[in-house]
Amino acid sequence: MPGHKTDKKDARWIAKLLRLDLIPASFVPDETIQDLRDLTRARKHLIESRNKQKNRIHQVLQCGGVKLTTYIEDIFGKSGRNMLELLANGEVITSELVKPLVYTTLKKKVPQIVDAMNGFMRAHHRFMLNEILRLIDTFDASIAEYEARIDILLQQYEAEVSLLISFKGIQRESAGIILAEIGTDMSVFEDEKHLASWAGLCPGNRESAGKRHNSKINHGNAYLKRILCQASWAAAKSKEGDLGAFFRLKRRQRGPKKAAVATAHRMLKQIYFALLTHQESKKHTLAATSVR
Predict the structure, then answer these.
(1) Is 10 part of a structural domain of the chain?
(2) How far from 95 is each of 68, 77, 120, CA to CA, in Å?
(3) Distance CA 115, CA 112 (A)
Protein backbone atom coordinates (compact mmCIF):
# COMPACT_ATOMS: atom_id res chain seq x y z
CA MET A 1 0.00 0.00 0.00
CA PRO A 2 1.22 3.54 -0.73
CA GLY A 3 2.85 5.17 2.30
CA HIS A 4 3.47 1.88 4.11
CA LYS A 5 6.88 1.12 2.59
CA THR A 6 9.72 2.09 4.94
CA ASP A 7 13.41 1.30 5.23
CA LYS A 8 12.76 -0.50 8.52
CA LYS A 9 10.18 -2.80 6.92
CA ASP A 10 12.52 -3.43 3.97
CA ALA A 11 15.32 -4.33 6.39
CA ARG A 12 13.06 -6.79 8.23
CA TRP A 13 12.02 -8.40 4.94
CA ILE A 14 15.62 -8.71 3.73
CA ALA A 15 16.66 -10.18 7.10
CA LYS A 16 13.87 -12.75 6.84
CA LEU A 17 14.92 -13.74 3.30
CA LEU A 18 18.54 -14.00 4.45
CA ARG A 19 17.54 -16.22 7.40
CA LEU A 20 15.71 -18.54 5.01
CA ASP A 21 18.72 -18.58 2.66
CA LEU A 22 16.63 -17.10 -0.17
CA ILE A 23 19.06 -14.35 -1.18
CA PRO A 24 21.46 -15.55 -3.90
CA ALA A 25 25.14 -14.85 -3.35
CA SER A 26 26.82 -12.19 -5.47
CA PHE A 27 30.09 -12.78 -7.29
CA VAL A 28 32.83 -11.03 -5.31
CA PRO A 29 36.33 -11.77 -6.66
CA ASP A 30 39.44 -11.80 -4.49
CA GLU A 31 41.34 -8.61 -3.71
CA THR A 32 43.91 -8.94 -6.50
CA ILE A 33 41.24 -9.51 -9.14
CA GLN A 34 39.29 -6.52 -7.78
CA ASP A 35 42.43 -4.37 -8.09
CA LEU A 36 42.99 -5.67 -11.62
CA ARG A 37 39.38 -4.86 -12.48
CA ASP A 38 39.74 -1.29 -11.17
CA LEU A 39 42.86 -0.81 -13.28
CA THR A 40 41.50 -2.27 -16.53
CA ARG A 41 38.27 -0.30 -16.25
CA ALA A 42 40.12 2.93 -15.47
CA ARG A 43 42.42 2.32 -18.46
CA LYS A 44 39.38 1.84 -20.70
CA HIS A 45 37.94 5.20 -19.61
CA LEU A 46 41.30 6.92 -20.12
CA ILE A 47 41.55 5.50 -23.65
CA GLU A 48 38.02 6.72 -24.39
CA SER A 49 38.94 10.20 -23.10
CA ARG A 50 42.07 10.21 -25.27
CA ASN A 51 40.00 9.20 -28.30
CA LYS A 52 37.69 12.17 -27.68
CA GLN A 53 40.70 14.49 -27.80
CA LYS A 54 41.89 12.86 -31.02
CA ASN A 55 38.48 13.53 -32.54
CA ARG A 56 38.85 17.17 -31.49
CA ILE A 57 42.16 17.30 -33.41
CA HIS A 58 40.33 16.19 -36.55
CA GLN A 59 37.74 18.95 -35.99
CA VAL A 60 40.44 21.62 -35.59
CA LEU A 61 42.18 20.49 -38.78
CA GLN A 62 38.89 20.56 -40.65
CA CYS A 63 38.15 24.09 -39.41
CA GLY A 64 41.65 25.15 -40.48
CA GLY A 65 41.27 23.72 -43.98
CA VAL A 66 44.01 21.11 -43.45
CA LYS A 67 43.41 17.81 -45.29
CA LEU A 68 46.24 15.84 -43.70
CA THR A 69 44.25 12.60 -43.43
CA THR A 70 44.01 12.43 -47.23
CA TYR A 71 47.65 11.28 -47.35
CA ILE A 72 48.47 10.20 -43.78
CA GLU A 73 46.07 7.52 -42.59
CA ASP A 74 47.13 7.67 -38.93
CA ILE A 75 47.88 11.28 -38.03
CA PHE A 76 48.79 10.17 -34.50
CA GLY A 77 51.63 7.93 -35.69
CA LYS A 78 55.23 9.18 -35.81
CA SER A 79 54.99 11.00 -39.17
CA GLY A 80 51.51 12.37 -38.48
CA ARG A 81 52.48 13.65 -35.04
CA ASN A 82 55.47 15.49 -36.54
CA MET A 83 53.14 17.22 -39.01
CA LEU A 84 50.73 18.19 -36.22
CA GLU A 85 53.62 19.72 -34.26
CA LEU A 86 54.62 21.79 -37.32
CA LEU A 87 51.07 23.10 -37.63
CA ALA A 88 50.79 23.83 -33.91
CA ASN A 89 54.10 25.74 -33.94
CA GLY A 90 52.98 27.90 -36.87
CA GLU A 91 55.84 26.79 -39.14
CA VAL A 92 55.88 27.76 -42.81
CA ILE A 93 55.24 24.40 -44.45
CA THR A 94 57.77 23.54 -47.16
CA SER A 95 58.98 20.31 -48.77
CA GLU A 96 62.44 20.80 -47.21
CA LEU A 97 60.88 21.00 -43.75
CA VAL A 98 58.48 18.09 -44.18
CA LYS A 99 60.71 15.49 -45.89
CA PRO A 100 62.99 14.64 -42.90
CA LEU A 101 59.94 14.33 -40.62
CA VAL A 102 57.98 11.70 -42.55
CA TYR A 103 58.88 8.05 -42.92
CA THR A 104 58.51 5.00 -45.18
CA THR A 105 56.31 5.47 -48.26
CA LEU A 106 55.17 8.92 -47.11
CA LYS A 107 58.46 10.37 -48.39
CA LYS A 108 57.08 9.85 -51.90
CA LYS A 109 54.03 11.96 -51.02
CA VAL A 110 55.83 15.02 -49.62
CA PRO A 111 54.51 17.51 -52.27
CA GLN A 112 50.93 16.32 -51.70
CA ILE A 113 51.36 16.49 -47.91
CA VAL A 114 52.68 20.06 -48.16
CA ASP A 115 49.66 21.08 -50.26
CA ALA A 116 47.29 19.38 -47.80
CA MET A 117 48.86 21.26 -44.86
CA ASN A 118 48.69 24.70 -46.42
CA GLY A 119 45.20 25.58 -45.25
CA PHE A 120 44.09 28.67 -43.34
CA MET A 121 45.17 27.87 -39.79
CA ARG A 122 44.73 30.88 -37.50
CA ALA A 123 46.36 31.56 -34.12
CA HIS A 124 43.19 30.20 -32.50
CA HIS A 125 43.53 26.88 -34.33
CA ARG A 126 47.21 26.62 -33.40
CA PHE A 127 46.41 27.27 -29.74
CA MET A 128 43.70 24.60 -29.75
CA LEU A 129 45.99 22.14 -31.50
CA ASN A 130 48.79 22.72 -28.99
CA GLU A 131 46.53 22.29 -25.97
CA ILE A 132 44.89 19.13 -27.28
CA LEU A 133 48.27 17.58 -28.16
CA ARG A 134 49.48 18.23 -24.61
CA LEU A 135 46.32 16.61 -23.25
CA ILE A 136 46.88 13.55 -25.43
CA ASP A 137 50.46 13.31 -24.13
CA THR A 138 49.13 13.39 -20.56
CA PHE A 139 46.66 10.60 -21.34
CA ASP A 140 49.43 8.57 -23.03
CA ALA A 141 51.63 8.82 -19.94
CA SER A 142 48.78 7.92 -17.59
CA ILE A 143 47.69 4.94 -19.72
CA ALA A 144 51.30 3.68 -19.79
CA GLU A 145 51.42 3.80 -15.97
CA TYR A 146 48.16 1.86 -15.71
CA GLU A 147 49.40 -0.74 -18.18
CA ALA A 148 52.63 -1.20 -16.23
CA ARG A 149 50.64 -1.78 -13.05
CA ILE A 150 48.29 -4.21 -14.84
CA ASP A 151 51.30 -6.19 -16.13
CA ILE A 152 52.64 -6.50 -12.58
CA LEU A 153 49.33 -7.94 -11.32
CA LEU A 154 49.00 -10.28 -14.30
CA GLN A 155 52.36 -11.91 -13.58
CA GLN A 156 50.74 -14.20 -11.00
CA TYR A 157 48.16 -15.29 -13.60
CA GLU A 158 50.53 -16.04 -16.48
CA ALA A 159 49.18 -19.59 -16.86
CA GLU A 160 45.60 -18.33 -17.14
CA VAL A 161 46.63 -15.53 -19.52
CA SER A 162 48.41 -18.06 -21.78
CA LEU A 163 45.29 -20.22 -21.69
CA LEU A 164 43.07 -17.34 -22.85
CA ILE A 165 45.54 -16.21 -25.52
CA SER A 166 45.21 -19.68 -27.07
CA PHE A 167 41.67 -18.65 -28.14
CA LYS A 168 41.49 -17.04 -31.58
CA GLY A 169 40.78 -13.32 -31.26
CA ILE A 170 42.10 -12.91 -27.70
CA GLN A 171 45.36 -11.01 -27.16
CA ARG A 172 47.17 -10.34 -23.87
CA GLU A 173 45.33 -7.07 -23.20
CA SER A 174 41.89 -8.61 -23.74
CA ALA A 175 42.92 -11.67 -21.69
CA GLY A 176 43.73 -9.35 -18.79
CA ILE A 177 40.33 -7.67 -19.07
CA ILE A 178 38.49 -11.01 -19.16
CA LEU A 179 40.34 -12.27 -16.06
CA ALA A 180 39.68 -8.95 -14.30
CA GLU A 181 35.95 -9.37 -14.88
CA ILE A 182 35.38 -13.11 -14.23
CA GLY A 183 38.40 -14.04 -12.11
CA THR A 184 40.09 -17.44 -12.30
CA ASP A 185 37.83 -19.48 -10.00
CA MET A 186 34.95 -20.78 -12.10
CA SER A 187 33.46 -22.71 -9.17
CA VAL A 188 31.76 -19.47 -8.04
CA PHE A 189 29.40 -19.88 -11.02
CA GLU A 190 26.94 -22.76 -10.96
CA ASP A 191 27.71 -23.64 -14.57
CA GLU A 192 28.67 -22.07 -17.90
CA LYS A 193 25.06 -20.95 -18.51
CA HIS A 194 25.00 -18.96 -15.27
CA LEU A 195 28.28 -17.29 -16.24
CA ALA A 196 26.88 -16.38 -19.68
CA SER A 197 23.72 -15.01 -18.06
CA TRP A 198 25.75 -12.97 -15.55
CA ALA A 199 27.82 -11.57 -18.42
CA GLY A 200 24.68 -10.58 -20.35
CA LEU A 201 25.40 -12.92 -23.25
CA CYS A 202 22.75 -15.55 -22.60
CA PRO A 203 19.92 -15.41 -25.19
CA GLY A 204 16.58 -14.79 -23.51
CA ASN A 205 13.36 -16.67 -24.13
CA ARG A 206 9.74 -15.68 -23.67
CA GLU A 207 6.72 -17.93 -24.05
CA SER A 208 3.39 -16.85 -25.48
CA ALA A 209 0.43 -19.05 -26.44
CA GLY A 210 2.56 -22.14 -25.92
CA LYS A 211 5.28 -20.92 -28.29
CA ARG A 212 8.80 -19.96 -27.29
CA HIS A 213 10.28 -16.82 -28.83
CA ASN A 214 13.80 -15.41 -28.62
CA SER A 215 14.07 -12.15 -26.71
CA LYS A 216 16.82 -9.60 -26.14
CA ILE A 217 19.85 -10.46 -24.04
CA ASN A 218 20.04 -8.84 -20.59
CA HIS A 219 22.42 -6.01 -19.70
CA GLY A 220 24.92 -8.05 -17.67
CA ASN A 221 28.57 -7.04 -17.44
CA ALA A 222 29.11 -4.38 -20.11
CA TYR A 223 32.93 -4.49 -19.83
CA LEU A 224 33.09 -8.25 -20.34
CA LYS A 225 30.47 -8.26 -23.09
CA ARG A 226 32.31 -5.55 -25.02
CA ILE A 227 35.72 -7.23 -24.97
CA LEU A 228 34.29 -10.64 -25.90
CA CYS A 229 32.38 -9.14 -28.84
CA GLN A 230 35.60 -7.45 -30.00
CA ALA A 231 37.39 -10.79 -29.71
CA SER A 232 34.59 -12.39 -31.76
CA TRP A 233 35.17 -9.96 -34.63
CA ALA A 234 38.90 -10.75 -34.50
CA ALA A 235 38.21 -14.50 -34.39
CA ALA A 236 36.00 -14.16 -37.47
CA LYS A 237 39.08 -13.32 -39.55
CA SER A 238 40.78 -16.59 -38.65
CA LYS A 239 40.36 -19.66 -40.83
CA GLU A 240 41.47 -21.89 -37.95
CA GLY A 241 39.35 -23.07 -35.02
CA ASP A 242 35.60 -23.33 -34.61
CA LEU A 243 34.90 -19.75 -33.49
CA GLY A 244 35.62 -18.15 -36.87
CA ALA A 245 33.51 -20.73 -38.69
CA PHE A 246 30.70 -20.29 -36.15
CA PHE A 247 30.77 -16.48 -36.60
CA ARG A 248 30.57 -16.77 -40.39
CA LEU A 249 27.68 -19.24 -40.14
CA LYS A 250 25.72 -16.98 -37.79
CA ARG A 251 26.49 -13.92 -39.91
CA ARG A 252 24.85 -15.58 -42.92
CA GLN A 253 21.85 -16.56 -40.80
CA ARG A 254 21.30 -13.51 -38.59
CA GLY A 255 23.62 -10.69 -39.61
CA PRO A 256 27.02 -9.53 -38.29
CA LYS A 257 25.96 -7.93 -34.98
CA LYS A 258 23.99 -10.92 -33.74
CA ALA A 259 26.77 -13.19 -34.99
CA ALA A 260 29.28 -11.29 -32.82
CA VAL A 261 27.11 -11.70 -29.70
CA ALA A 262 26.45 -15.40 -30.42
CA THR A 263 30.17 -16.03 -30.93
CA ALA A 264 31.00 -14.11 -27.74
CA HIS A 265 28.52 -16.36 -25.91
CA ARG A 266 30.16 -19.48 -27.33
CA MET A 267 33.65 -18.17 -26.55
CA LEU A 268 32.75 -17.39 -22.92
CA LYS A 269 31.42 -20.91 -22.38
CA GLN A 270 34.64 -22.35 -23.79
CA ILE A 271 36.66 -20.04 -21.52
CA TYR A 272 34.62 -21.27 -18.54
CA PHE A 273 35.50 -24.91 -19.20
CA ALA A 274 39.14 -24.10 -19.97
CA LEU A 275 39.61 -22.21 -16.69
CA LEU A 276 37.62 -24.80 -14.74
CA THR A 277 39.76 -27.65 -16.08
CA HIS A 278 42.94 -25.66 -15.40
CA GLN A 279 41.82 -24.92 -11.84
CA GLU A 280 40.99 -28.57 -11.12
CA SER A 281 44.33 -29.65 -12.57
CA LYS A 282 46.10 -27.14 -10.33
CA LYS A 283 44.25 -28.48 -7.26
CA HIS A 284 45.24 -32.06 -8.08
CA THR A 285 48.88 -30.99 -8.49
CA LEU A 286 48.85 -29.16 -5.15
CA ALA A 287 47.21 -32.14 -3.44
CA ALA A 288 49.80 -34.54 -4.85
CA THR A 289 52.62 -32.22 -3.77
CA SER A 290 51.27 -31.93 -0.21
CA VAL A 291 51.01 -35.74 0.10
CA ARG A 292 54.69 -36.08 -0.76
Answers:
(1) no
(2) 14, 19, 18
(3) 5
What is the CB neighbour count within 10 angstroms for residue 135?
Answer: 17
Domain annotation covers residue 231: yes
pTM of the model: 0.84
Q: Phi then psi for 185, rounded to 5 degrees?
A: -95, 100
Task: Give the C-alpha separation, 156 to 32, whole Å.
Answer: 10
State the sign of the Cα–Cα–Cα–Cα dihedral 233, 234, 237, 242. Answer: negative
48 part of a folded domain: yes
Distance separating alpha carbons of residues 160 and 182, to the nearest angstrom: 12
Give the residue numbers spanning the domain of 181: 158-206+215-282
What is the per-residue pLDDT for 41? 97
Please tell me whether residues 267 and 230 are part of one structural domain. Answer: yes
Per-residue pLDDT of 14-48, as tens digits, reads: 788 777 766 666 667 889 999 999 999 999 999 99
CA distances from 159 to 165, 274, 281 (A): 10, 11, 12
pLDDT level of residue 244 (50, 70, 90 thresholds): very high
Over residues 143-164, the pLDDT tens digits come to: 999 999 999 999 999 999 999 9
Sign of CA dihedral 28, 30, 34, 40: negative
The neighbour count for residue 30, using CB atoms within 10 Å, is 11
In terms of domains, do 266 and 169 share one? yes
What is the reported pLDDT for 214?
55
| 115, 134, 154 - which closes a domain | 154
Say if strands 211-215 and 204-208 run parallel, antiparallel, or are unpaired.
antiparallel
